[in-house]
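# step 3/5: fold
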Amino acid sequence: QRGHNIQLSKALSYILRHGASKEGLQMSEGFVFVDELLKLRQFKRYSENEIRKVVDENDKKRFALRLDPVTNRLQIRANQGHTIEVDDLELNPITDPSDAPVVLHGTYRECWELIKAQGLSRMSRNHIHFAPGEPGEEGVISGMRSSCEILVFIDLRKALSDGFKFYRSANNVILCPGNEQGFLPPQYFEKVMQTKPSKYFILISFTIEQSTS
């Protein structure tokens, strides 16, 4: 049963974040109709109740359900992680640094040298994803994998003052589209911490270079 639910969750993530238009699903504010979704070949073995169960039990709160205000039919959406353009997704702008005292991105040691040189990239997604705290802290349910080895803390005040846009999703993930190239450059890194095998702060060479130039 657990494997069945994991397969359903992965299928929902793909359709709602990336594949809705390819499958001919109409999307409004990120929502699609559950009854239309269940007509797709890959969802025919699932039921509405199984979808409700996956949404309720997902520990990262990846999905949201609602009744369509016009038709009263059940709808579902992914809360973030989209590569497709989604109009009017429920993202709350962050305009005051005090609204997000901690903004951090989790990554891995093998990625750090490139990130240190280029900054953080949204890659194929619409946004760079951040968490409002370390995994396991109160209120932190998504935004990074718990297996991440390096935490990049963002200087939100500086990034906001330089015109970068930040948003909070319905499941408390902090999102930033980056610059025109989709990057948040390294000068907006406040500090960087390695968490595994033990915690310590990494010296960021570009801050030294900037301060001595």
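# step 4/5: annotate
Confidence is low (pLDDT under 50) at residues 207-213.
# step 5/5: archive (pending)
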